[in-house]
Amino acid sequence: MRAIKFLPLFALTALAACGGTQNRGLESVHQPVVHRTDYVYDVPASGLSSTDRDRLDGWFQTLRVGYGDKIAIDGADAGSRHDIEALAAHYGLLLDSTAPVTTGEIGAGQVRVVVSRAVADVPNCPDWSRTSQPEFGANSMSNYGCAMNSNLAAMVANPEDLVRGRTSGSVTDANMGGRAIKELRKAAPTGGGGAPLKNESTRNGN
């Protein structure tokens, strides 16, 4: 009768612990990755009619254009630039001086409006590919850093700040500093007659 050989239990455990994501440092191997997508819309170069403006505005609304997005015009500087610039200002954005390269030719007598949007995420998270114990290689958990960096990628207003960062200017912008307070007041619940509710100390006469 042929004898059947079994690997010792500790050997099987060691083999299981060797697989999965390795992280021998203090910094997580799971870092945010920024992806950029360009959306294009061609409009007449000579100027925008009311119908053209409504369609472009509807396109902006569909994309939910906002802070962090970049709008540029690809094509010869034409009469429609002022209309596009005014519509972009309605969303709190300025036109970029340089448009990215896009696929497809621009039709004759038209210019291309390009909306560039950056999105950040953390690939391969969550990651439970490696057992936490036993850990003979002194690795951090395979999921280490996934929660923190995923939350950072989801919350950052402009994902491109994760790539280049942002330097503070020499002059403090009071409007930018008070913007959060203004937005909070706009979203505050209202009482009768549409007036904002007063705080507790005011209602109690203090």
Helical content (DSSP H or I, runs of 4+):
25-40%
The overall pLDDT, averaged over residues, is: 80
What's the story with the biggest beta sheet? 4 strands, mixed
* Beta-strand content estimate: 15-25%
| Unreliable residue runs | 9-17, 200-206
Structural class: alpha+beta
Order of helices and strands: HEHEHEEHHHH
Q: How many helical stretches?
A: 7
Oligomer: single chain
Number of strands: 4
The radius of gyration is 27 Å
Gross morphology is elongated
The N- to C-terminal Cα distance equals 94 Å
In which order are the strands of the major sheet placed? Answer: 1-4-2-3
Describe this structure in words.
Helices cover 33% and strands 15% of the residues. The protein has helices spanning 9-18, 50-63, 80-90, 146-155, 161-164, 174-187, 200-203; strands spanning 33-44, 70-74, 95-96, 110-121. It has a 4-stranded mixed β-sheet. Strand 2, helix 3 and strand 3 form a beta-alpha-beta unit. The longest helix is centred in the first third of the chain and has 14 residues, at 50-63. It starts with 8 loop residues before the first helix and ends with a helix. Mean pLDDT is 80; it is low at 9-17 and 200-206.
